[in-house]
Amino acid sequence: MKKEYVIVRIDASHDGSPYVILSLSSTKDLKENNQPLSSPFGTNMVGFSNMDDVMKGLNKMFSGGGALGSSGAITSMKLDIHEYKELNLSVGDKVYLELTKAENLGV
């Protein structure tokens, strides 16, 4: 099975280890909510007077108080920092996840 996702958030590991956490939303969920794929923040613009207000607004949006939080389930993925740098990923990139079941040969 192969699914298409859009990267909506990239975070450093909370424990300080050399990993990043990717938050992914399915392109289907984004399309159903009429959100443009090129901008994960939607079309509504809000002015901010300082950087603290910007960060509070973004956290609210991603945690459920805004457009992305209400768009459905978020899939999280942990990547080693070397894998992350090698893939050159950024917010808004489309990625594909492919799941396959290993077959057991023999008893």
Q: Explain this structure to me?
A:
- The protein has helices at residues 27-32, 51-65, 81-87; strands at 2-12, 19-26, 75-80, 94-98.
- The longest helix is centred in the middle third of the chain and has 15 residues, at 51-65.
- The two termini are 26 Å apart.
- A four-stranded antiparallel β-sheet has the order 3-2-1-4.
- It has three helices and four strands, in the order E-E-H-H-E-H-E.
- The chain has one domain (2-97).
- With 107 residues, the protein is of the alpha+beta class.
Distance between the termini: 26 Å
Quaternary structure classification: single chain
- Whole-number mean pLDDT: 75
Strand content: 25-35%
Overall morphology:
extended
Helix content, binned percent: 25-40%
Number of helices: 3
Question: Spatial order of the strands in the main sheet?
Answer: 3-2-1-4
- Weakly predicted, low-confidence segments: 35-44, 65-71
Number of β-strand runs: 4
Count of spatially separate domains? 1
The main β sheet shows up as:
4 strands, antiparallel
Rg, Å, rounded: 16 Å
Q: What would you call the structural class?
A: alpha+beta
Q: What letter string, H or E per element, gives the SSE order?
A: EEHHEHE
Keywords:
107 residues; 4 strands; 26% helix; alpha+beta; four-stranded antiparallel β-sheet; 3 helices; 28% strand
Describe the structure concisely.
By secondary structure, the chain is α+β, with helices and mostly antiparallel strands. It has helices at 27-32, 51-65, 81-87; strands spanning 2-12, 19-26, 75-80, 94-98. The protein has a 4-stranded antiparallel beta sheet with strand order 3-2-1-4.
